Amino acid sequence: MSLRFASSFALCLLLVAMVLPVSAQQQETEQEADAEGEEADQGTDGEEEPEPPSVRLVHFGPDNAAGSLASLYPDQALELGQDEGAFTGLLKREGTPERHGGVLIVAPSGQSPDQGVAGAIRSQLPKAGWMTLSVAQPSEPVPGIPDRVFEAETAGSGGAEQDDAGTDGEESAQQDAGDGNAEAGGDAHDPPDITIEVASGAATPEREDDWQQRATDRIAAAVNALRNENVGTIVFVGVGDGADLVLRYASANGATLPPDQFGMVWINARLRPPFSEGLVAALGEDYGVPILDLYDRNRHSERAEQRSAAARRGGFAAYTQSAIPVPRGGAAREQRRVPARIRGWLSGNLESEGGQ
């Protein structure tokens, strides 16, 4: 019995010696797995971190705003110009049996040919028998970012500009704070005041000769397109600073335009020198081209009054100025009063029958 008992006891010891290392290894493995799970839970709150969505942003700048016109208006988009001067205009034919003429619309800088008041005019006048061609301006030079100037000043240097009452109160507070710092044994000094000055001279840059030439070539290409349609009467409509462009082209090329079949419409005109400084000096006295000068009556325009006074002094034969509500923003696209006012002026001054 003793031999059998000894053999059984030795076998048990052997089994225990084999089981203990395996159990210890399993415990270590489980502890490592638990630690990794806790780290994962802390990082993601127990959820898988989703992959970020793929987002693609597409932006058409002012010069490339016409890039989407062909897809929006495939039956009206008209490619004009050549090479680097190529651009897209919107040609809308008259919706009446008779055609009275063609209207070239120049949108303000930074806007597409179908935006704002320009879009309202180009879509409304064809209903009255006028073919419209709307174009955008070339992109303008971007003004440079002004330099920032950092100037360090010693602490307390700005105190002289403060009033006495405020200064006394602040000095007392600073002395109290200084006594506290001294008692604490601190030797820290006040940090210097930093003044950031933005350099001046960040105004909108002038339009250079290169830009003026590109803009004039764009208008010339649009005029040729209307002539190819045999419109007869041609009317230039300039919105905002587009009025400056049509005025420059008209004054330089007036001899090539058909007499008694040419006119201009300015809407909230923003003119540049020399026209902003004096219409009579730039165009001459007794200027005979019919002009309709529209401006927003909800905003007092001193420049509009100056243009009207100059036209009276210069004896302009067919100058008319009117003040009407001119909406801005998204509502301008659905504007009807401005096109109606232009339509009435055209019927009394320039309406004619052109070729079909």
From TrEMBL:
Region (Disordered), start-end ranges: 25-61, 154-194
Biased composition (Acidic residues): 29-51, 161-173
Signal peptide location: 1-24
InterPro entries: DUF3530
Keyword Signal attached: yes
Keyword hit for Signal: yes
Keywords, ordered alphabetically: Signal
Stored Pfam families: DUF3530
Biased composition (Low complexity): 176-185
Name of the protein: DUF3530 family protein
